[in-house]
């Protein structure tokens, strides 16, 4: 009993000591004497840290640390400061001098070590905590478009894709997105679904963007650039944060009427004795998605001047099922009646994010972290079809050991897409469930299409009593007898059955794929004095399982291993005016040869805060698992990965027509048929327009880029950022479409086979394949940007940037090159003040970009125009210090311009919102 009592007293005294082993104080503005909320207080060289509350107070645990201590203090908009503390009883009074925000910016993305943004060796953009809080868009992620060089494409209310420096797409596997070092891509799609499964606004501390090739340090995915999101540390940012946001969209839209949206978020973090800390996050965004209602006739088999609502062979962009068509002798081209997207897609979208992290300080310099993220949501995605990512789940587990000079990190990413589906395939399957033959009997789905065309033909030719002959409208009504109407029980039953039928027999998209990643990095600067040396390595293992719905993996397991390693060396010369940096990385995928990606850069400081930079960078991208092994039938087209063993049982690579030659042939054939030529004659007269395809199997793509730039600060008021780049691409991974008939494309004498040509005109005797391959020609892109930020009197800030991007085909065949999909000109203008008067602040941002042609697989890689547009985002906020609260009233696209950002995706209108945020509660 005495021993037990002694142990209790001992632990109690230790606990008392731990409670007393802390320092406390206040932080304030040196000019106004007002308290500084959210200022960062850290023990230099240690992991201990906290932030000030709304009254500027802080309390920092320093158990097991020896005095004196050096505190590093920083706050957005103020000069950094170091304070020496000699004992725990000392009341620490910290005053910070106001400073241009830009001087304080520290970034890590460009070199994987901390450095001042002014001396970054490559272009880099940063959104800091102040920018996140005062962002006028609905979410911080939406606000990324205002950064210089950034592009954004909206497919859904819950899914926005970002990119830089061209070759944009609705799903971008060339742009790396990391959240606390974890790759946020889904294993089955191989790209990040925007921030649908990322971090909530109230947990994001900062965002850094590298526009352009970053493979030399970040590996194959960072071909176009990298986006690094850093969340708040549980030790440093303690307390409870609550945010409630509500708004409306779909204003003045006749198809929907105004709809509400809601965004709720909670964050709580707590530290114990400066040894253990945890945080939890929960956020939920819900609303009505943007409607895709572009019903333009894009039929590839109909001459452009004959397309439109009256075209019996119409293929409307956002109507699905009507792409199933057939040229009928004596009738012309006829397509099946389709369903509008709004009747197929789930427009009630949401994004649920749950996150928890445990942090344990093994020593004052070594910390262990475990983090779990659970994301679930619904979004619309524009790919080769419009996909409904319905109740899609993404989970990540992260375990990390980190110190001041190294980290070892392991994580896994797991997806579950069991409720997701392809809307185009869905319409086609529903269409095959109800067709009657001429006796009124419903036929089996495999006979439905041909039977429907037989009914149409009989009615049009006057072979059906009571139906007017030579009348396309009457023939369609007759062929559609028994059609399932949207909203009926029969339609809903057929829809549900197809959604949960995976593979070739249904529209469901199933994936329980995952990947495992291990990586580490060590900074040798403390051990090697001659140069700054950094090294790292990574290993990734893909374990794919789609049960045959995306890959041919019912009986064939699809796994992929890849690894990479890099080393970086830096040296400062000429009294630290010249900074040289060189790195090289080697990556190897088990299915391809390994590649080296070097980078060299130099930064020269001509005067204080005036820096010129130049760099040679390389980009490298292994084909993703989807690039290699996808085998997805989406109705009129099958998407086929480019690994040789993925098409062993098909002859599509050996026996098919190029899409461009088929388009020319189909157009000429249609014109002759409309002019009265018999079907066989129209085929024979135009068959020589067809060309046999010659598509190679896939291999990695590469990029070489040169960049020069200047970043400087004038009179502590004007920030200037200039850059120019030139990039050359080889082996660019792309999709090419071919038409594969059943018969040989050549006859014995080497001429085009008329039977194969005739088969190519019908979806029942030929099939289109979208093949993954590489561009055989070299192409290049160049561009530049200029950014200015001017700090005006009384805390006003005026900023602007312009980006220019151009694409040079050189001598390449445009049909063999990936789509650039980038406006030539893009501009942003920002005017803001965080505290105009009595706690009121505002932020106004204007974005404009020029028009361009969008090429994508959704429209068969045919161009669709994206007109020039402008967007204005604005917010006005009021800070309530006594309540630790901020009220914000704002809007995205406040003038409600209906804009398309990708052809086939929905038009995007205004979102108006009001939010209330409480911070530093229960601290």
From TrEMBL:
It comes from the Bacteria. Residues 372-894 form the TonB-dependent receptor-like beta-barrel domain. InterPro entries: Beta-barrel_TonB, Beta-barrel_TonB_sf, CarboxyPept-like_regulatory, Plug_dom, Plug_dom_sf, TonB-dep_rcpt-like. GO terms for molecular function: siderophore uptake transmembrane transporter activity. GO terms for biological process: siderophore transmembrane transport. Belongs to the TonB-dependent receptor family. This is TonB-dependent receptor. It comes from Hufsiella arboris. The lineage of its organism: Bacteria, Pseudomonadati, Bacteroidota, Sphingobacteriia, Sphingobacteriales.
